[in-house]
Structure formats: structure tokens, C-alpha cells
């Protein structure tokens, strides 16, 4: 049994490090929030190796690199910024790496990884020079609110799709999924469990819903029991340092187009996600994020570390909103995520029970919570309403956070000038408009799979 004085010492350390009392939270709440966030994003341990494996990379090595980069990023976010925001390899970047760069452009994964490494180095330099911090502070309040709401709708759409409630359609792009598929009903069960618990204001509603959904899936046989309990993490030897070894290939002009896209997409994906999550967690003060520079540095260092280990760029995870929704307010939440990722390297077979149908209900409910940011936007002023609307709908309809942000940045300065409010536009917004024009052009000239 743990010595009472030792327990008090541990609590004192956590209090001094994460300022729990000041943030009006508790150790128990933070641990539960971290567990919920981890459960919501644990899928990346299996999805990332699958996607990068399609590019020819060793899946086992990518699994380990994924876990280690998530541990590095989430721990840095905890201790540097004290934010309840987890970091791991981003889904959009790995898909672009495999399907557009490797398969579409015919570039080997080794050369493509060199591009990721160079983009990561530039990313870190921009963070160190506080360029990213300056840009985020310059974004108008209404666009920040629109980003938060857009991300909410985006992750709800991801949940609806992952749970089988919305599927692709050749005639109408999307349509309702088949209700004859048993796993779809597992998603529906989870939605109702979480929604009812939320309506009754039960603490930890989302996590209880996740556990309940997984349990029902195992009992009914819709989710397979794990084949084993413990499995040692695979070696990273096939991917470690490959990007650095391939640096001489950067003389190819085509590679710099790849670097530019990785750099800009990672820049604004994380910026948009951080702003959205900060709005949800109540971190924003006077339209600014305290310690934003440290948060961006944590993200940059983890991206650089991941590129060395053998994975695509990391990003702040929108699934952190699940933990924030049940009370996560400090870095203890993200530290918990880091610790659980470390454990997952030994108990990876157990994570197979966390299917899309298990996490989908949480994403849908969290989307509902994040959309509340819409109420604070000045909808009665069209020069603000139009960019905000395009930002919100652009994210889910293009299935890309950066595109949604681009739509807002491209229209906001123009409409503000048209409304006679030119003096209210920060010069950085004009620079960003030009940057997004370049980004959209490059994205459209790069061959697609």
C-alpha cells in the first residue's frame, strides 16, 4: 500500500507542475480525460501503419514510430504548454504522403521521407522564430470561432462515416448507411448511451459510453476478442533515419513542391485545431492563447522527431476534444495520453477492440459541443458571416481542415475592404491570403492518385 506521505508528495508535484487548483480541476478528472482522449485516438496506431504500408514502408516500424512520436509530442505539450491537447501523426498528411506523393507522383517513400524531414526542420525554425505564434494571434476572433465550429462538424462527419451512418454515393456524394449492418447499430447504441448520460449530466459520460459500446461489441461478437495480450514493439530499423540519408535527393525541384505542401498543410492544420480546442477548453483570453509559443514548439519538435523515426508529420489531435469535453483542462491530460501510448507498445493487441464503431459516438457528440462556438459569430455582418460560413462548411465538405481555413482567409480581407473596414485588417491576413492562393495552386498541379 502506498505511503500517505508519498501520495501527498505526488499530489504536490502534480499541483505545482500543472496548476490543477487554479484551473479548477482534479487529478481524477484529468486522468479520466486523458484516458478518454487516448481511447478516441488510439486508432492511429493501426491506421498509420496501414496507410504508410501502402507506400512500401515497414508496418511494424511505423507502428513503433507512431507510438513514440505521440509519446514525445503529448509529453512536450504537457510540460511545455500545460494544455490538454494530445499530439500524434496526422491522418491527412499520411494520406497525402502515400497516395499523392509516393503512388501519384512516383517518388519513392525514402525520398518522400526526406521531404518530410526538411519540412519538419523548417517547421521548427518557424516556431522558434515565433512566426507561427504571430500568425495565430493575428487571426480575427470570428474566424477562430468558425474554425472551432468547423472542426466540430468535421469530426462529427468523421464519426458518422466511421460508424457507418453515412456512406459514399456515386449520385449524391453521400447518403445514409445501411441499417442492416450490425456494426452500424453498435454506433447507434453508443450515441444514445452518451447522449442520455450527457443530458443527465453524468460525469465521464463520453468515456462510459465508449466502454459500454466496446463491451456490447465484444459480448455480441461484433468486435473480435484480441488474439493475445502482450506483444513487444517492433524494431524501427527499417525506417529510422531514412529521411536524413536521402537528403541528397532534395536537389530535385519536384521535392520542394512536396516540402511546401507538407509545411503549409501541417502549419494550418495544427493552428486550426489548436484554436478550436482552446475555444472548447476555455483557454482563449482576449482572443489569444496563453503559452501558444510553447504549444507550437512541442508540436514542431515532435514532428521533427517523427520524421527521423520514420513517420509523417504529427499534429494536434481533434480527438483531444473528447477529453476536454469531460473536464480535461491541463497538461496532466496530455501526459496521461503519453503514458498510455507507452503502455500501448506492450499491449497493442488489446487496442483492436477500439473499433471505428466504438469511437464514432464520441466524435459525433463532441462535434455537437464544439459547434456551440457559432453563437458568438457576428452573423448580422455579411463581411464576417460569409468567410465564417465558408470556413465552417469547407472543412467537412472538402474533408480537409486546411481547405476550410483557406476559404476563410481568401474571402475575409476582400469582403472587409468592400465593407469599408480596410483599417481593421492585419497585414498578416493579406500575407496569408497570398500564401493560401499559392497553396491551393500547388495542391491542384500536383498529380493525384
Automatic annotation (TrEMBL):
The chain crosses the membrane at residues 31-55, 61-80, 113-131, 143-167, 179-199, 206-223, 255-275, 330-351, 358-377, 397-415, 427-446. The keyword Membrane applies. InterPro entries: Azg-like, Azg-like_bact_archaea, NCS2. It is a multi-pass membrane protein. Keywords: Cell membrane, Membrane, Transmembrane, Transmembrane helix, Transport. It comes from the Bacteria. Pfam families: Xan_ur_permease. GO terms for cellular component: plasma membrane. GO terms for molecular function: purine nucleobase transmembrane transporter activity. It is found in: Cell membrane. Belongs to the nucleobase:cation symporter-2 (NCS2) (TC 2.A.40) family. Azg-like subfamily. This is MFS transporter, AGZA family, xanthine uracil permease. It comes from Pediococcus stilesii.
Amino acid at each position: 500500500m502506498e505511503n500517505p506521505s508519498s501520495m501527498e508528495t505526488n499530489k504536490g508535484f502534480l499541483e505545482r507542475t500543472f496548476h490543477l487548483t487554479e484551473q479548477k480541476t482534479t487529478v481524477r478528472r484529468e486522468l479520466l480525460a486523458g484516458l478518454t482522449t487516448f481511447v478516441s485516438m488510439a486508432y492511429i496506431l493501426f491506421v498509420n501503419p496501414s496507410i504508410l504500408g501502402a507506400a512500401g514502408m515497414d508496418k511494424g516500424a511505423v507502428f513503433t514510430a507512431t507510438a513514440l512520436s505521440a509519446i514525445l509530442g503529448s509529453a512536450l505539450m504537457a510540460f511545455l504548454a500545460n494544455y490538454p491537447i494530445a499530439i500524434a501523426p496526422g491522418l491527412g498528411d499520411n494520406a497525402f504522403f502515400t497516395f499523392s506523393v509516393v503512388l501519384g507522383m512516383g517518388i519513392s517513400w525514402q525520398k518522400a521521407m526526406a521531404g518530410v524531414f526538411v519540412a519538419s526542420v523548417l517547421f521548427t525554425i518557424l516556431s522558434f522564430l515565433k512566426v507561427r505564434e504571430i500568425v495565430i494571434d493575428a487571426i480575427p476572433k470570428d474566424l477562430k470561432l468558425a474554425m472551432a465550429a468547423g472542426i466540430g462538424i468535421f469530426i462529427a462527419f468523421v464519426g458518422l462515416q466511421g460508424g457507418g451512418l453515412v456512406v459514399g454515393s456515386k449520385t449524391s456524394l453521400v447518403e445514409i448507411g445501411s441499417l442492416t449492418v450490425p456494426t452500424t447499430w453498435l454506433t447507434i447504441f453508443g450515441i444514445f448511451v452518451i447522449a442520455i448520460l450527457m443530458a443527465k449530466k453524468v460525469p465521464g459520460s463520453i468515456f462510459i459510453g465508449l466502454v459500454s459500446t466496446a463491451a456490447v461489441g465484444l459480448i455480441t461478437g461484433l468486435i473480435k476478442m484480441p488474439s493475445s495480450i502482450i506483444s513487444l514493439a517492433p524494431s524501427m530499423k527499417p525506417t529510422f533515419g531514412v529521411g536524413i540519408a536521402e537528403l541528397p535527393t532534395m536537389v530535385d525541384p519536384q521535392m520542394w513542391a512536396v516540402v511546401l505542401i507538407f509545411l503549409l498543410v501541417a502549419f494550418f492544420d495544427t493552428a486550426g485545431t489548436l484554436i478550436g480546442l482552446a475555444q472548447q477548453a476555455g483557454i482563449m483570453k482576449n482572443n489569444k492563447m496563453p503559452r501558444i509559443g510553447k504549444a507550437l514548439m512541442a508540436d514542431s519538435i515532435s514532428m521533427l522527431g517523427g520524421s527521423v523515426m520514420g513517420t509523417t508529420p504529427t499534429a494536434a489531435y481533434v480527438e483531444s476534444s473528447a477529453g476536454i469535453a469531460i473536464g480535461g483542462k491541463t497538461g496532466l491530460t496530455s501526459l496521461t495520453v503519453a503514458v498510455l501510448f507507452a503502455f500501448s507498445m506492450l499491449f497493442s493487441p488489446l487496442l483492436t477492440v477500439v473499433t471505428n464503431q466504438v469511437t464514432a459516438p464520441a466524435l459525433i457528440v463532441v462535434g455537437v459541443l464544439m459547434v456551440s462556438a457559432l453563437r458568438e459569430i457576428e452573423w448580422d455582418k455579411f463581411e464576417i458571416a460569409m468567410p465564417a460560413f465558408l470556413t465552417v462548411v469547407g472543412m467537412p465538405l472538402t474533408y480537409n481542415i486546411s481547405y476550410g481555413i483557406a476559404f476563410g482567409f481568401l474571402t475575409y480581407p476582400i469582403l472587409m475592404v468592400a465593407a469599408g473596414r480596410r483599417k481593421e485588417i492585419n497585414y498578416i491576413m493579406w500575407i496569408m491570403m497570398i500564401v493560401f492562393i499559392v497553396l491551393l495552386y500547388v495542391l491542384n498541379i500536383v498529380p493525384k492518385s
